[in-house]
Amino acid sequence: DGGITQSPKYLFRKEGQNVTLSCEQNLNHDAMYWYRQDPGQGLRLIYYSQIVNDFQKGDIAEGYSVSREKKESFPLTVTSAQKNPTAFYLCASRIEGSTDTQYFGPGTRLTVL
Amino acid sequence: RKEVEQDPGPFNVPEGATVAFNCTYSNSASQSFFWYRQDCRKEPKLLMSVYSSGNEDGRFTAQLNRASQYISLLIRDSKLSDSATYLCVVRGAGNNRKLIWGLGTSLAVNP
């Protein structure tokens, strides 16, 4: 089946540990995005990538890092520098061209203890 | 002023009711407009794009008013399964195609 997968669905980590969230898509989409969603707040853009080996900071990139070595994959690392990492993390992708529509993976709910 | 503003609700309506949501955006150069639906603890899913001429998909109708900078979503004959949060989304004016997300309007359809 085509789609976007994120793993794991739930993740628990101790404070001070780095953690990497997986995002894979087999839709042949060029652009990929990472958002976080907190209660009472809209989706906030962390990083995005419009092409392999290139990525840009979003609105809240501090404490996060990404890589885009393959078109299908856009992993997000939440570092110990991120002050409030507990959140719902959503990965999305978009096909390059005229459409702006983004399609989402099921999300990873990260809890830092 | 927020870039995209929605009434947070919640809207509580009986089955079969018609309900309308509005959303305003601040940047007159915005290019694309969408309504997404998000169920509790799930990812957002595209409900419909919003075109200048307005568009309809079954019980759902979306309208865009560029002069007043607002978009609307009308749901007719509400079903229990329509209960969700509806997110208004606007593409910014830059070349990077970033989307700007509203906080969402919560809808509860009651039996």
What keywords describe this structure?
heterodimer; A: 113 residues; mainly beta; seven-stranded mixed beta sheet; four-stranded antiparallel beta sheet; 11 strands; B: 111 residues; six-stranded mixed beta sheet; five-stranded antiparallel beta sheet; 0% helix; 53% strand
Write up this protein:
The complex is a heterodimer of chains A (113) and B (111). The radius of gyration of chain A is 13 Å and the shape is globular. Chain A is mostly beta strands and 113 residues long. The termini of chain A are far apart. The mean pLDDT of chain A is 92. Chain A is 0% helix and 49% strand. In chain A, the strands form 2 sheets. In chain A, strands 2, 4, 5, 6, 9, 10 and 11 form a 7-stranded mixed sheet that branches. In chain A, strands 1-3-8-7 form a 4-stranded antiparallel sheet, with no helix packed on it. Chain B has 111 residues and is mostly beta strands. Chain B is 0% helix and 53% strand. The mean pLDDT of chain B is 92. In chain B, the strands form 2 sheets. In chain B, strands 2, 4, 5, 9, 10 and 11 form a 6-stranded mixed sheet that branches. A 5-stranded antiparallel sheet of chain B has the order 1-3-8-7-6, with no helix packed on it. Chain B is globular.
Coarse morphology of chain A: globular
Mean pLDDT of chain B: 92
Largest sheet of chain B: 6 strands, mixed
Total number of strands of chain B? 11
* SSE order of chain A: EEEEEEEEEEE
Give the distance, in angstroms, between the N- and C-terminal Cα atoms of chain A: 35 Å
**Which percent range fits the helix content of chain B?**
under 10%
Give the strand content of chain B.
over 45%
Our measurement of the CA-to-CA distance between the termini of chain B, rounded to an integer number of angstroms, reads 37 Å
**From the structure provided, what is the oligomeric state, counting identical versus distinct chains?**
heterodimer
Mean of residue pLDDT values of chain A: 92
Q: Which radius of gyration of chain A do the C-alpha atoms yield?
A: 13 Å
